[in-house]
Structures are given as structure tokens and as C-alpha cells.
Amino acid sequence: MVTTRTAKAAPRRRANELRKMLEAQDELEFALLQMKADTLSRIDAALRRLDEGSYGDCFQCGDEIAEARLRALPFAVRCKCCEEALETLEEHNRHVAQRSAPVVLFDP
After folding, report:
1. What is the rounded CA–CA span in Å between residue 60 and residue 83?
2. What pairs with residue 57 in β-bridges?
3. Distance (Å, rounded) from C-alpha 70 to C-alpha 24?
4. Could you give the CA distance from residue 55 to residue 73 in angstroms, rounded to a whole number?
5. Judging by beta carbons within 10 Å of its beta carbon (0-12, 13-18, 19+), is residue 65 exposed, middle or buried?
6. Which pLDDT score, from 0 to 100, does residue 7 have?
7. Mean pLDDT, 10 residues at a time, over the chain (108 residues)?
């Protein structure tokens, strides 16, 4: 038997679920817009480097970025070697930060 309280709670529960779904969708759409804006910014920077004559030069070591890499990622700013070194360093720093983060044993 469905009580009046249960009957009234069901629409509220559905409304809350719908609101949460819409919020998640809004967050996803915002993240996609940010990614698109970031990509456009990188493309603009690559076009400026092309005008300046520095397109295809690695920011890190100054060597030429491989043509295959530029075809795959036209706005690349580092050669494969330097990019991998940077990613390794960033991963190490994340690992160190996680280990040095305070541990909460209980929630006050």
C-alpha cells in the first residue's frame, strides 16, 4: 500500500534526480567548451609561430619537431622526447604530492 507521504516523495525524488542529471550535463558541456577554446588558442599560437618562422621548433631543446608529430598534433610545441620528459616529471610531481598530502583518519 502506498502512503500519502511516499506518493508525495516520489515526484520530489524524480525532480532531484533530473536536476542532478541536468547539472552533470551542464558541467560536461562547459568542459567541452573549455577544451574547444583551449584548442583554438593553441591553433592561434601555432599560426603566430608560423608567421614568425619558429613553427616546428621545440620550445624546450630547440630541435625540429618531427613532421609526423606535427601532422598528428599541428599545435605541438615540444618534440616527442621533450614532451615525454615533461610528462614523466609531471607524473613524478603528482606522485610526490599525493604521498605528502595529509591523511584524514576520521571525519570530525
Report:
1. 9
2. 64
3. 35
4. 12
5. buried
6. 62
7. 63 88 93 96 96 96 97 96 97 90 67
Beta bridge pairs of residue 64: 57
* Cα–Cα dist 60/56, whole Å: 12
Q: Which residues contact 12 (CB under 8 A, 6 or more apart)?
A: none
All three cell numbers of 89, joined, read 616529471
**Hey, what's the torsion of the CAs at 12, 18, 23, 26, to 10 degrees?**
-150
* Amino acid letter for position 55: Y
Query: Which grid cell is 43?
Result: 591553433
What span, in angstroms and rounded, lies between the C-alpha atoms of 90 and 30? 25
With beta carbons less than 8 A apart as the criterion, state whether 74 and 46 touch: yes
Please tell me the distance from the alpha carbon of residue 42 to that of residue 48, in angstroms, as a whole number: 10
